[in-house]
């Protein structure tokens, strides 16, 4: 039986009827399978949650120990059954603990890839190509204008700026889960071993990464710095929302750095008042989306989460059946950007 | 080229005029001639012609990228140059790009049929940021928040010179400004521009306030009609071996090529300030008629015959080679009047002395304003102090404009489109229509007049009420009434409604008003210029 007859979208999320579970539901359900910890995928209050151990830990960090009645950590590549449905989790390469979910039923297979990327990321195992009939893909950066530069080049810009403006506090706006840690690791990889200062919102998740043996080097909460003037010439990482608020006014001679895949479009970077936009993304760029579709080589592509029309158009041009999977909470347009997780 | 691109990149993302000025001065100090002069010209908008046409760029990209994907990308990015910069498929990095001046020389020297190939070659060795810089430079579309005026100020600061020196020199020097820059650095003499016809920065007026009208004192003021044309400066010196004539716009753009009929008849050594209009002998045609001329870089004889250019002269900066700017208006006016009515060179069917009007009191002045505004060729009144010297810029308390009240209509939003540049993520350009029986006909487009907050609300409304898409244009439910202000209505064959509004802007958003109560086309037609 074709998956379009047993997978459906309702106002909660993607539902698998024979297995009676939701994937990344937006409101509390009986059984939820969660691909990863970003808030547009992982919500609290479910009866029963299945997710990677890291994702469960992230959810507990964000929502507290009681985030779901029952929490079941899932091992990668180990099949589980829900009635007649076989479910297997695979790495997605997006952030710590991120997974794709393979669903097999009635002779068909569906891969819900969640958010994913193909670049090297030291915080998570790489995306795995899983052959399937229906591949459900995100489309966050699904326009041919999006071609993310190598992360090393972007980090070099930040280090260059520190050299040119040694007395300015470099305030880096980066989403607290995934992006922040990736930036820290890339700085370390580039040889930057000075302490990195954190806004309060970044601390818990960085500590969690450290518990999973990801070495982030010396991190200091900004709140523990008595004389904020000493932050001149240092790197401070804060959530993008904190860049413009009162909190940042205590920092000396701020230079605003924004880290996001959207920074590639100058008008957007300008809108965010970025003086130094860095293009670093935890999603695929356009060539990687196409490469992934080719490698997975499904018979059908369902597109969600972003610029659906362009990717559907291109997938069809490449000879695949393709259609939009309009999902609740997955806003198709910019309104979703701020709400959407690490981009 | 790398340094130029880097400069633009930094200017683009830097806010604050001082920081921008510092970046430019730093660039001037560290970049050799002639590159830096070309950069100044590009930023100041002083390049005289496109190195390549927008169409060439579009053609190159459509040969390389799927049309649908280009359209979707453009819709998202909001700007052609940047879209192309990102979409360009080939990239073979070169160790060092040619200098900016080499690239410019290349485009200036290349034959027409090779422009496109030259451009393609350059795009293929550049990063997206460098491509963007080249495309913006070549199509003269740089907008990085540095005005022509502020670049002059920056040059003055850079060389520790007076801004008025720079302004006077500006139209006498040409890119790449090598002499100017050397003079600024005290490495060369002041550029000699005595042989060049230059633009004299014009004197501008302030909007009048109620208190000025109350205090009106008839013997202090010269009153004139405010004409609905464009402000021009006519400069001419036919007494030299090589005679020179030029017509400048109020910002100093040389628009001579579009008005040979006006210039042809002029002789003498003079600089006149006035209004350019289409005039049939004494009678003034509409702004719409003038528009026909403004749109044509090289007008045909037929067009010039149908829409002959004329000038209503209201001031003189130079007559018979003598500078009058330090005389009071009353004396300048006297000399101008004598010249235009009594001298052989001055009497000219294309030049008309601006009529002065009289009001004996504030009340009479108000009545006069009301009266002149009934004439649709007039936009209101000008009040100028009789003792005012001709001072460039906008000196306080000297000249006032008293415009006609704007018209307003209630129209219904029909389509919306994303804006450009900073606004590219908002639906900020709105097409609105008026009723004819029970259908709406589009009457115009507006993209200003609202606050940032209102823009967000409008954008949100468009997203929630979009019902169709035509390329980048979203059709919306015909439910939102916009109160649109505008200065005039003209007949137009370009619009199905047959009308075109002048300077339409959103006056108010009528969230409260049902669309069925918006105005009819008939109402708007009744306001048409006659
Ligand atoms: Zn995510
Ligand atoms: Zn997501």
Automatic annotation (TrEMBL), chain A:
Q: Which UniProt keywords apply?
A: Exonuclease, Hydrolase, Ligase, Nuclease
TM segments?
Answer: none
The EC number on file is 3.1.-.-
Q: Which GO terms describe its molecular function?
A: exonuclease activity; ligase activity; RNA endonuclease activity
What's the protein called, per UniProt? Ligase-associated DNA damage response exonuclease
From TrEMBL, chain B:
Identify the residues that the record assigns to the ATP-dependent DNA ligase family profile domain, covering every copy: 302-436
* Protein's UniProt keywords contain Cell cycle: yes
- Which one Pfam family would you cite for this protein? DNA_ligase_A_C
- What does the record list as coiled-coil region(s)? none
Q: Which UniProt keywords are given for this protein, alphabetically ordered?
A: Cell cycle, Cell division, DNA damage, DNA recombination, DNA repair, Ligase, Magnesium, Metal-binding
Keyword Cell division appears in the UniProt entry: yes
In terms of Gene3D superfamilies, this protein maps to:
DNA ligase/mRNA capping enzyme, Nucleic acid-binding proteins
GO MF annotation list: ATP binding; DNA ligase (ATP) activity; metal ion binding
Instruction: Supply the EC number(s).
Output: 6.5.1.1
This enzyme catalyses: ATP + (deoxyribonucleotide)n-3'-hydroxyl + 5'-phospho-(deoxyribonucleotide)m = (deoxyribonucleotide)n+m + AMP + diphosphate
What does the record list as GO biological process? cell division; DNA recombination; DNA repair
Please give the name of this protein: DNA ligase (ATP)
Organism annotation: Alteromonas profundi
